[in-house]
Specification:
By secondary structure, the chain is mainly alpha-helical. It has 26 helices and nine strands.
């Protein structure tokens, strides 16, 4: 008999359920990956795009003078074209929106090819969208970033490539990864390695591919071809010390316990998936584990012990972004399988939620590792059923932890309301809100309410609407900064083309508003990893300006670092500090401060922006900014 397929059912389940879940997933992503504007490395990428538009603009800027990361990405050229068409602010937002859309579609495609079960897919995607996205040390990097860089595009293309690979289309996967490398080779390299391992697991004769890749790289290094020639170059002690001080997160031996705890949790979670899951997910888990292990070993031996310039610059530990994605997917599939077989599901889920809340501390991370191990044993049928008393205790621990952290979170928000109102701080969804969301979803699912389509659709619409409303989390400062980019201002008439400006904690203002070369800033110090000349220039110039703001550079050149951490207010400069900066050999042509020295400033600007006070407790915006021409200071 010929049976016609039900038009109300898709490959992934009932149409109503599918669209409700899609809306909810988008809402979770938008809430946990908001657009924050031109911050972090978004400032550097925007500067590189402006430099691509007009190379004369920043030709004397220390970040570009000796070359930058811009030499290894096509993103800046594309971004520059967008800025030329629509302006800096709209181009930045559009770049993030396109990058994140490409990212989410890549994630969905990969997860769909890893499971045919709609419910399991839902668990995997929710955990990947809203779970732990950070990797490395100091919560500096996370996947699916909310500011304009090349990284989300490279990550997205790798996810699409893996989806094609799992679907049995290796050639398309290879070319997609190469396109990803055009955006960010450091993040595409892990995808290439994982792809090679995954394919070799299924086709053993292709184990020659990784070997050929290694031998090819060594050959290019021996021939001194491009950046490969740096493989056998050693970073001298002076350069290495500067990089270690400014970019300590690059070196694994400098990582705090919490960074190692996060890495171990991800590795254990992926290992658990390898043990209990079969099929493509199992092969992908093993490939990612091998890739992450190789990345860390290469970074330790080649970078920190042998100090190879190329290995240090490659930062092979950053393969952790892919480990983080697969770890979240693995967490989803483990929890789904735990609830399918029901035994100890409430107990272990409650313990995992409690340990996740405490994961800001190393013991909490260890607890998460233990719980994930127990879940793997339970799914494998090797864990005895616990008593109702244990279940109640676990539930009580989770409830108490959630109540404690919700109270602490509420107190923090209430006491810093003025800072949020002024735009000095922006609200961010933390693990507390995400765990609370998971608890609500689990409760609705367990009671059967979520099976009522109207309720599921309503809940998804609320999530999506909240995500759309709160996705743009730029501060008032960021909004004004993007609006004022390239506009007339009180300072520009007094500045000459080619002048180098030191704006205390204001690289974005120098580049985007004044559109002049910046003398030095902490952000520009990111370039010292890729150029010794940049490192030496950064060292010399931070010594010159440290009198005006020793905390911005972590007091590397002035006072003891521990003493610096005890200073909780923004350094208030004196006129003598300004004189010493302006009269220093090779100093800046102009200085912008939020301090007024009567009779010495050339122009005053009551710009409604706040000082970047990430290191300080001072939150009030300055009354105004003041321009000082060094040619007139100390005369």
């Amino acid at each position: 008999m010929n049976v016609q397929p039900d038009a109300s059912v898709t490959r992934l389940g009932p149409r109503g359920t599918f669209w409700a879940f899609a809306a909810g997933l988008c809402g979770v992503w938008l809430l946990t990956h908001p657009y924050v504007g031109l911050v972090h490395d978004g400032v550097l990428y925007a500067g590189q795009a402006l430099f691509a538009l007009n190379r004369e603009l920043f030709e004397h800027d220390m970040f570009f003078r000796f070359g930058s990361q811009d030499d290894f990405t096509v993103f800046s050229r594309i971004y520059a074209g967008m800025i030329a068409l629509w302006g800096l602010g709209p181009a930045a937002m559009l770049a993030v929106l396109v990058g994140q859309t490409l990212w989410v579609f890549g994630l969905v495609r990969l997860a769909r090819n890893l499971t045919c079960d709609f419910s399991e897919l839902a668990w995997m995607l929710l955990l990947a969208a809203g779970g732990f996205a950070f990797y490395g040390s100091g919560e500096i990097f996370h996947y699916g970033e909310g500011f304009p860089t090349a990284r989300p595009f490279s990550e997205a293309l790798v996810l699409h490539a893996l989806a094609w690979l799992v679907a049995g289309r290796p050639l398309i996967a290879f070319w997609a990864t190469l396109v990803g490398a055009l955006f960010h080779p450091l993040l595409a390299l892990p995808g290439l390695v994982v792809g090679a391992f995954y394919y070799a697991f299924h086709h053993p004769r292709f184990w020659a591919l990784p070997i050929i890749g290694i031998l090819g790289g060594l050959g290019l290094a021996l021939l001194n071809v491009g950046p490969f020639g740096r493989l056998f170059e050693t970073m001298d002690p002076e350069w290495f010390a500067l990089v270690a001080q400014r970019n300590a997160y690059i070196f694994l031996l400098e990582w705090p316990a919490e960074a190692w705890g996060g890495l171990m949790f991800q590795a254990v979670t992926v290992s658990a998936a390898f043990i209990v899951v079969a099929g493509p997910m199992r092969r992908l888990a093993l490939a990612v584990l091998l890739m992450a292990l190789i990345g860390c070993v290469v970074s330790l031996i080649g970078g920190e012990w042998l100090r190879s310039v190329l290995i240090i610059q490659l930062q092979t530990w950053r393969s952790g972004w892919l480990l983080a994605v697969v770890a979240n997917l693995a967490t989803g599939t483990l929890l789904y399988r735990l609830w399918v077989q029901r035994d100890n599901a409430t107990t272990l889920s409650a313990l995992l939620a409690a340990s996740a809340l405490w994961s800001i501390f190393f013991p909490g991370q260890i607890a998460m590792i233990i719980v994930v191990g127990l879940i793997a044993f339970q799914v494998s049928g090797k864990l005895p059923r616990t008593s109702p008393v244990v279940e109640k205790v676990a539930f009580a621990i989770a409830a108490a932890s959630l109540l404690f952290f919700m109270s602490a979170r509420g107190y923090s928000l209430a006491t810093q309301f003025e800072a949020y109102a002024q735009g000095v701080k922006t609200f961010d969804v933390t693990i507390v809100e995400f765990v609370l969301l998971m608890v609500v979803l689990a409760a609705l699912f367990a009671t059967g309410w979520l099976h009522q389509r109207w309720l599921a659709a309503s809940f998804a619409v609320v999530l999506l609407a909240s995500g759309i409303v709160f996705w743009d989390r730029r501060s008032p400062e960021q909004n004004h900064l993007e609006f004022a980019a390239g506009q007339s201002n009180p300072f520009s008439p007094y500045l000459q083309s080619g002048d180098q400006i030191y704006w205390r904690r204001g690289l974005d203002k120098v580049w985007f508003i004044l559109q002049q070369a910046s003398y030095v800033s902490f952000h520009q110090g990111a370039g010292i990893l890729f150029s010794r000349e940049t490192a030496m220039t950064y060292r010399d110039r931070t010594q010159v300006v440290s009198a005006l703001d020793p905390r911005e550079f972590y007091d590397l050149w002035t006072i003891d670092r521990n003493e610096a951490q005890r200073r909780k207010t923004l350094h208030v400069p004196e006129y003598s500090d300004l004189v010493s900066v302006c009269q220093a050999t090779g100093g800046p042509e102009a200085v912008v401060l939020d301090a007024a020295f009567a009779g010495h400033w050339k122009a005053r600007w009551a710009l409604p922006l706040v000082v970047q006070r990430g290191l300080d407790d001072v939150l009030a915006p300055p009354e105004a900014y003041y321009l000082y021409l060094c040619s007139e200071i100390g005369k």
